[in-house]
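Priority: medium. Attachment 1 of 2:
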């Protein structure tokens, strides 16, 4: 990120959408997605992520991978209390 303001905008976007996507931004040909794992107070306790070659991972915002990661985060929280 180039500035603190840009980082703040990115964080606000992640909070609103519930996930973050990277499409070859850091390493060409590598995509990633991540979802926050929030406790009952909505504080961050962990992050679940998937990383892989662009050709083999679906990082679309409405794709199955994002849905599955969000579901896994909810299951994680429900299991640890």
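Attachment 2 of 2:
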């Amino acid at each position: 990120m180039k500035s603190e303001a840009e980082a703040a905008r990115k964080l606000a976007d992640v909070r609103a959408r519930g996930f973050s996507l990277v499409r070859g931004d850091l390493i060409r040909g590598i995509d990633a997605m991540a979802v926050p794992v929030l406790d009952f107070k909505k504080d961050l306790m962990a992050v679940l992520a998937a990383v892989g070659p662009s050709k083999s991972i679906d990082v679309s915002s409405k794709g199955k991978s994002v849905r599955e990661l969000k579901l896994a985060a909810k299951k994680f929280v429900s299991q640890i209390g």
